[in-house]
Design a protein that fits this description.
This protein is an alpha/beta fold. It has one domain (2-210): Alpha-Beta Barrel (TIM Barrel). The chain has helices at residues 11-23, 59-66, 90-105, 121-130, 148-161, 181-194, 201-210, and strands spanning 2-7, 28-32, 71-74, 111-113, 133-135, 139-140, 165-169. Strand 2, helix 2 and strand 3 form a beta-alpha-beta unit. Helix 1 (11-23) packs parallel to helix 6 and helix 3 (90-105) runs parallel beside helix 4.
Length: 212
Amino acid sequence: MMAFTFDDGSQCQVDLALPVLEEFGFKATFFVVAGLTRERKTDAPLPGRAQRWWGEVSWEEWRAIAARGHEIGNHSLTHSVGGVARAADPQAEIVESARIITEKMGRAPESFAFPFGKFTRRVRALAAQQHRFVRRRRARYGGWFFNLALANWRVDRALQTGRPLIAMLHGIESGFQPVDRALLRAHCAYIKERGLVVDTFANVSRISVAGP
């Protein structure tokens, strides 16, 4: 199985990546920065964004996306540059963000992803208390080394080993380590051709934990 996970709540993920995924019938997980997410698209951006692409998508949009079967996960309260463990209030980064997501989405987030992939044993335990699944291992999609051959090799490897492939993406065409939209579409076509099942991070994790 495979999960496409998107970090930071960038608008390009919704405008460019989501239509491609839905074209192939794939579901995805979007890890949002709760404390930087505004209610409506027309609202002014909230203060505290170290990067302009963090928290671009509104709660109004996320609710519509969740209604189509995609997962909205927790990516901390403020995306503290030093990571959750080095934030002024690590507990708020995990607990308060989960509370906000629950309030805005009408259900508690099942999944958590640490900004920058940084965590300590303490904050990992705290994230696990608040969420059923915490993303740890992930395959980075994007960056200077990334290409279609590598992406497709990862699919083949997942099929050979039987281990879930958890893809981590940020920008599409722009933003942090952007992935080309045409590459993403070609990769999705390859996934479909090879028969690898794509679902949300929570659903993939649920099946992985349960085992065969």
